[in-house]
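User: My advisor, Dr. K., asked me to get a structural model of this assembly before our group meeting. I'm new to this, so sorry if the format is off. These are the inputs:
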Amino acid sequence: MAGEGSAQLRLELIGIEKDFGGVQALKGADLSARPAEILGLCGENGAGKSTLLKVLSGVYPAGSYRGEVRVGGVAVALESTRDAQERGIAIVHQELMLVPAMSVQENLLLGREPRRFGLIDDLALGVRARELLERFGFSQIDPAAPVSSLGIGLQQIIEIVRALSFDAQVLILDEPTAALTTEEAARLHEWLKDLRARGTTCIYVSHRMDEIFSLCDRVTVLRDGRTVGTVVTAESSPDAIINMMVGRTLEIRPPENRAAAGPPLVQIDSLSVKGALSDISLAVGAGELVALVGALGSGRTALLSTLFGCAETPVRGDVRLSGKSLSLSGPRDAIQSGIAYLPEDRKGRGLLLDMTVAENLSLPTFANTPGLFVDDERESNIAREQIAALSVRGTANVKVGTLSGGNQQKVVLGKWLAMKPRLLLLDEPTRGVDVGAREEIYNIIERLLADGVAVLMASSDLQEVRRLADRILVLQKGRIAAELPRGASEEEMVRLSTFAKGKAA
Amino acid sequence: MLAVLLLLWAGLALYPETREAFLTAGNFSNLTAQISEIAIIGVGMTMVILIRGIDLSVGAGMALAGVVAAKLQIDHQVSAPLACLAVLAVTSLIGLWHGVLVSRFRIPPFVATLGGFMSYRGLALVLSGARGMAPMRDDFVVLGGRMPGHVSLAIVIALGALGLGYLIMREVRRKKLGLPRMSLVMLTVALAAILAGVIFALLIYQDGMPVPVLLAILVGLGGALLLSRSRLGRYAVAIGGNSEAARLSGVPVERVTVLIYLLTGALTGLAGIVATARGNGVTPGNAGMMRELHVITAVVIGGTSLSGGQATMVGTLIGALIFGTLSNGMNHLGINSDWQLIFTGIILLFASLLDSMSMKKRIS
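Assistant: The format is fine. Below is the predicted structure of the whole assembly, which you can bring to the meeting.
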């Protein structure tokens, strides 16, 4: 950072080091941000971005790490999130941080409730919340509605509005658009540019290069807990930044030409689930990948979880796998018929974070074979095979929760591959996964397809859909709205999935 | 839940064998006095369960409270108010201790209070020499008795007026803030509820309202305000719903946890005082026996989720009334206490079944 006077910097992190019981997450990370700028923060999963943000937002109190945090040129010791907020630093976390049983207004003003006679003034609270929602263009949200009644996208919006409402000088956003529709993401970007014009500093973490380049002024890249460098986006390119992130050159491969799809392995006939899906008919061949695209709530996830037997309301219709009708009565049945499911919510539904890699990998295999005892030898064999096959960076006996997102996702995949599925259901297979691991996951999927596995994949990453899909189904409000061939353009997918009468999500 | 209570009452009122004994002012007055201890502790327990905790020590705590009150009065001739203060101090300290164990030392609440479940009962037995202690001072026994008729009349009317005043104040403030007014239907329902409550109370407390009932009403009102309108209550909901989100929003999670256990301790002391005053003495071996389970039952019947994050104070009070009505009704039906246990257990399961079914409905 030579040549920059500290006076013109709003925020500086200098030589931050932080370790967790022997594992060093940060080994000397630097970051500096100016007033009125949007600074991108990039790095593979496990590079230390989240840790750095937690230092910056006071989640890790001063003293639990080494290095210096300066705000406006003055060294500060941030003791708590509240302390950080009071110094004008607000953060939108990657995971949803809302209280589900509370209403929108209670969540928005949690910790800052207006009071009257010492008690919370809930009427004034409602008024304040409505003002906030109006100010940020979301007056259609009812402030009194329970926050759990909103879709994930709107919940994310609530969280962003809450952070914005602190009138923060520094606003940190950790992958804020992961759960947003294109339209919502565009609106968020407008606000951020607006805030920049008013002098706010934003630190924006994203895996998506298109976002980084359309939004950020500069980008700081982290690798293995260190700052690799900071570049001005106008003078750089996505490839250059990806190279900085992975430390090697990585080619983005075009969609592959697969061998012609085999006979239909999966046949779905007029599948309906009350309140989620209506009249879905489709077929997937052996070795074929069918992608499902559509806005949040369009039925992508509902279709996958229904096929895995997780529908919450009665199901009508017929699903056949190799000509045999499926009961759809629960995951156990689904697994026994050879269906595997990689859920969208990796941490909540995909993994047991406190169990080891080996235990996670062998769980579906053991749960579906008879016997009283756990066969240690078999377990370590499964673990060894899958860890090698998927090149998981971690050993069999570490807790899954300590791995990075990309490696966690490989473990989820591995746990299903160990039982050799015939139909693989993938829901956002690379959400929150860094570029390097993403390519590895794509290769694994390609390998499975070559082995004749049928794959049904829901994804909101359209580049990913283009990269992998043989056919693309656009879902809208629980129905199949359109079908597109391999190689359809992203613009077309977006147009078809948002070309609705009402508003998405 | 209110519907279940009214249904129970209607059933007992219509059933020929229970009609006469059940439908009297005296019976209702007794019923409410009997559940006042459950209601008082229930307010604290609701908050504890809301933050995903549990307090198994409250029954033993009541016994200890009774023994402390009795020992001070009988062996040391301490005046009633001073004895009460001492009891509240002791049980508040116990609550504080639980809170520190749970929040600072990360001991699971079940274990932290299970220790108390055993040791406070033991302490009560040791302090009393394992003998019943009686009688208490007259000015202490008053706490378990009835108020004069005209005083209770005044109190009931004052409470009704308070409700009415709150309703009006709120409407005025809505107008001032430019918010939509309460709908006519809601307004009528609210007014009718206040009126019905006042008339019902006047009818059943003709001979004077039991003091424990007044205490339970005051604690219940305070608890309802605490839960829905105080920062502490709001923070408790947040902690129960998503404690990480609460912490990152700047909620002082440890302090709130400690305060909630402390409150429950204090209310346990109050309930112990009431029980000892009502019985004009204490038998440390079985005072407050199984009370912790009765209270948890009432809280669960009232719709508070044992997995945290969701609670209503009114629900707990209604849960306590349902619990009391069940045992009262079964007494009138001549069902012996062994069978009563079985039925109460079944009804508890039924209540949580209802809860989980309505939860499913809400999700789909």
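One thing worth pointing out at the meeting: Chain A has a mean pLDDT of 84.

User: Perfect, thanks a lot.
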